[in-house]
Amino acid sequence: MKETEGRSQHVAVYRSYYPGTQPDHLHTPYASSVLRAPKQPLVRIPQTIGEVTGPTFSPSLVSAATADLTRQPGGEALGQRIVVSGRVLDENGTPVRHALVEVWQANSCGRYLHDGDRHDAPLDPNFTGTGRVMTDEHGRYQFETIKPGAYPWRNHYNAWRPAHIHFSLMGPAFVTRLVTQMYFPGDPLLPYDPIFNCTADEKARNRLISTFDWEKVRPEYALAYKWDIVLRGRNETPFED
Amino acid sequence: MSLQATTWQTVGPYFRIGLAHLNCIEMAPEGTPGERVTVEGSVLDGSGIAVPDAVIEVWQANADGEYAANVAVNTSVPVFTGFCRVPTDDGGRFRFSTVRPGQVPGPAGQMQAPHLAVRVMMRGLLRDLATRMYFPGEMTARDPILQSVPAHRRGTLIGSDVPGRKGTVVWNIEMQGERETVFLDY
Predict the structure, then answer these.
(1) Whether the Cβ atoms of residue A109 and residue A121 lie closer than 8 Å to each other
(2) How far apart are CA B110 and CA B52, in angstroms?
(3) Which pLDDT band holds residue A5 (cuts at 50, 70, 90)?
(4) pLDDT band for position A162 (50/70/90)?
(5) Looking at domain B16-174, which CATH architecture does it have?
(6) Where are the alpha helices (DSSP H) in A27-160?
(7) φ, ψ for residue A158 (rounded to 5)?
(8) CA distances to A130, A164, A189, B14 from A120, in Å
(9) Per-residue confidence at A175, pLDDT binned at 50, 70, 90?
(10) Does domain A31-231 have CATH number 3.40.50.10300?
């Protein structure tokens, strides 16, 4: 306690999200938001030391095996092999180094290895859909996986989720947390999906779509997609108490 | 250079596949200095029904009021990092054990009362919700952040002692309704 007493609070503040680039909590076309989104306005508070700090993660949480979803000890997963890579930057363009990236996804048939998934599509004994990587010195990440399939859900009549990979990043602070989904270019289901379309800003939505990455394609082996991720960055304007 | 932060998307119903490796019920391994406490509660939706597919994340200071940001989370080495990820169970309940955090500095040099920074995510939430759980005690009356919350809603951010269960604090997260939890924006 002694160390903290009397210390004035000169924490650098993270920027607010650019207006329109984040979903509202309530988005009625997404049916399950109706009873789960808060009705009262959020209460704005200053960022304090607990918001601008955050956990760090040991490199032992990742390995070559956690970066390759295409194989299990028993054999290789079925489906189209893809390499997914990109950079994690903050809003100031600075690479986010040594950031833990957790990913999960459905298999090539659109089925998750999860008790709650009742879609009548086959499970793949050689695909768990779980991956983890850490960004390098330049904020780069990369993993290999199988292109996920689309799957039906009961949000509305004939509802199908476009193919996507879930991403979870902590970043350097409690306020930089990001959980999102990466989509694939040219997916005909995107215009119909209330989750993809929940964000007002069209450019922000479209940044969730990866690009085909010809240069990373591995001849005779795997296609490749590139997707960059941006976490909240610190305000560059000097700030005084 | 000026970029815009990537858009949030819901964690969906199947987050366990990707996130369960860091689930934790004991934040403070034996020998961690401080007063031990178990925090438990339920997540309830707008009709008062328990939410079985929510996940909360906690970030807190240690008993001396310091954040252990330099102690890496490592699932094979039990150590207090101040971070915990807890999904709700089939009954919408969550429970974890920790040590009561110390006071930490706040705006304009005022001290903040002991609290957990909490993030709530679930299917149906397109992005996260931030909140706080304060430990019950008279310090909450002077906390500078709680002062910025309308007085009649402050109680939703403060856990309750349970008579006859020393060392347990109960705190529910209610998404809507009379006792809707205060969610924070920063």
Answers:
(1) yes
(2) 38
(3) very low
(4) very high
(5) Sandwich (2.60)
(6) 49-52
(7) 60, 40
(8) 21, 19, 19, 16
(9) very high
(10) no
In this structure, are residues B65 and B104 in contact, taking their beta carbons and an 8 Å threshold?
A: yes
Name the nearest CA neighbour of B133 among B94, B91, B173, B88: B173
Pick the residue from chain B with its C-alpha nearest to A18. Answer: B4
For chain B, the structural domain boundaries read 16-174
Domain borders along chain A are: 31-231
Burial (Cβ within 10 Å: 0-12, 13-18, ≥19) of residue B93: middle
B156 burial via Cβ count (<10 Å: 0-12, 13-18, 19+) = buried
Tell whether the model's pLDDT for residue A241 goes beyond 60: no
- For residues A148 and A112, give the distance between their C-alpha atoms in angstroms, rounded to a whole number: 10
Q: Does residue A1 surpass a pLDDT of 50? A: no
B1 has a chain A CB within 8 A of its CB: yes
Cα–Cα dist B172/B159, whole Å: 8
Identify residue B138 by its one-letter amino acid code.
E
Report helix, strand or coil for A199.
Answer: coil
- Considering only CB atoms, B9 lies closest to which of A21, A195, A231, namely A195
Question: From CA B56, how far away is CA B20, in angstroms rounded?
Answer: 12
Q: Is the ipTM of this complex over 0.90?
A: yes
Report how far residue A184's alpha carbon sits from residue A198's, in angstroms, rounded to the nearest whole number.
17
Q: Residue B76 is encoded by which pair of tokens?
A: 């094979």
Torsion of CA A171, A174, A176, A181, to 10 degrees: 80
**pLDDT tens-digit readout, B90-143:** 999 999 999 999 999 999 889 999 999 999 999 999 999 999 999 999 999 999
Set of chain B residues whose Cβ sits within 8 Å of the Cβ of A182: none
Across the interface, which of A14, A35, A53 has its CB nearest the CB of B46? Answer: A35
CA distance B158 to B143: 11
Alpha-carbon distance of A116 to B38, in angstroms, equals 29
Burial of A166 (0-12, 13-18, 19+ CB in 10 A): buried
pLDDT score for A236 = 72
> For position A7, what pLDDT does the model report?
45
Distance CA B158, CA B149 (A): 12
Contact B19 A168 (CB under 8 A): yes
Q: Is the pLDDT of residue B85 over 80?
A: yes
Q: Are A198 and A27 in contact (CB under 8 A)?
A: yes
CA angle A58, A61, A63 (to 5 degrees): 120
Task: Report the 10 Å Cβ neighbour count for B130.
Answer: 20
